[in-house]
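Human: I would love a firmer grasp of how sequence relates to backbone shape in proteins. Take your time, and here it is.
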Amino acid sequence: MSKGTVLYIEDNEQNFYLVSVLLKTKDYRILWAHDGQEGIEMAIQIRPDLILLDIQLPVMDGYEVAGRLRSNPELSKIPIIAVTSYAMSGDREKALSAGCNGYIEKPIDPDTFLAQIDKYFSGIDPARNEK
């Protein structure tokens, strides 16, 4: 049984592969959108439990994607985590002000990544953690 559904909006196949391998080890279901527009459409269709969002995307960047997701009442409560190589001063704040709930820098650290993701799932549905 899946712990929850994660939508990863990411244009780089290698980045998606790494994240998907990590998440599958903890029984998360992961879906992939290749660009911002596709990500919004998939979010509307599947209503994921969590969205991982690259900032540098084709079609529309992650900041615009986050803003559009937040402006949709049916999607506005879904946690969005920016997963990005943007690590300059102010980038975290820009992602958070665009509507992201968290920020994970690339390259992803496999030793801490799952703990960061689990933290967001623990707040979604307390019954999820009862077995």
Q: What stands out?
A: The first helix runs from residue 13 to 25. Helices lie at 13-25, 36-46, 62-71, 91-98, 110-122. The two ends are 11 Å apart (CA to CA). The chain has five helices and five strands.
